[in-house]
Write a structure and sequence with these properties.
Strand content: under 5%
Radius of gyration: 17 Å
Largest sheet: none
Oligomer: single chain
Distance between the termini: 47 Å
Order of helices and strands: HHH
Structural class: mainly alpha
């Protein structure tokens, strides 16, 4: 069995944590059984998603920093910026 890269493991663990938070939020919504509280829980999730995306992307870029040229690194940053503009722009 090959060793798991620490960076990949960190990224995967963050995604597992994010998924667990999502499942717990869904269970809370069902438990509360009220639209107002479900919306409140859902609003909290709106912070978790982008933070996990930003954190996992940052960890991945740190892992690739020595393999990416400056130009490619800037393209990746531009792509992440476009994602955040699309997600957060209302």
């Amino acid at each position: 069995m090959s060793m798991i890269n620490k960076i990949v493991l960190s990224m995967a663990m963050l995604r597992l944590l994010s998924g667990t938070i999502e499942i717990m939020a869904a269970l809370l919504m069902l438990r509360f059984n009220q639209i107002e509280k479900a919306l409140l829980v859902n609003s909290g999730l709106a912070l978790v998603g982008p933070l996990v995306l930003l954190t996992t992307t940052t960890i991945g870029l740190v892992g690739l920093a020595d393999k990416l040229s400056v130009g490619k690194f800037l393209w990746v940053l531009a792509g992440v910026a476009c994602l955040f503009i699309g997600i957060l722009k209302k």
